Amino acid sequence: MTDRTQPAAPATLGLPDFEPLRRAGWSVQTVTGTYCVAWRGADEVVFAWRGGGWHQLTTRSLRRAA
Q1: Cβ(30)–Cβ(20) under 8 Å?
Q2: pTM score
Q3: Residue 66 domain-assigned?
Q4: Whether the Cβ atoms of residue 54 and residue 26 lie closer than 8 Å to each other
């Protein structure tokens, strides 16, 4: 009989899990430890992985007010 268990998800290992960001439409560009920079449309956001979830730290939009 073979073991068909799935590997542990990154979150259960205490590692950042980028899938929630990707499912929300973010494109993860740069990763440094528990921080990442992600893009969605014209928005650039820095996220931090804390307590098993992503928290937005900063945002910058390429859209400029006219």
Answers
A1: no
A2: 0.72
A3: no
A4: no
